Amino acid sequence: MHRIMxxxxxxxxxxxxxxxxxxxxHYEGAAFPITMExxxxxxxxxxxxxxxxxxxxxxxxxxxxxxxxxxxxGLKTIQPxxxxxxxxxxxxxxxxxxxxxxxxxxxxxxxPWSDYExxxxxxxxxxxxxxxxxxxxxxxxxxxxxxxxxxQAMELRRLEEEHPGITRVNWGPDxxxxxxxxxx
Length: 184
Description:
By secondary structure, the chain is an alpha/beta fold.
């Protein structure tokens, strides 16, 4: 199951995206069953990304708290391998350049979107991500065989991809390990 994150400050757009996307996408003979989570606040989406791995994100460009480029750039630091798609009702060249250069988006889709274009772009993004992850896994296997990477480091990469933040330790000033959400 591929987990998709939808982010837009307008709830009507989020509902429209949910209606437009089926529960399974197809690309070049491959099927991608999907599940979606929608967020009207980018901060909540970033928080969720620290807890759950997502395969792709579709984000609005213009949002009040932070724009889509800022959001996707922040998301990229949490989950570098997530496929990023941005929606915009404005054909702003600066926004497009920022989205490509800073957030390294996979696709820029104009609002109003064509359902076919949206589904195709998301299916292509998932297929591209799958190939990229497989290439990374194979390259890591070669590095292990050559002694350039330990099996432990390779497993840590895999775990971090599946469970963002699991390999990071929050140290206290006295050397203790701090666990979020626990009161003393």
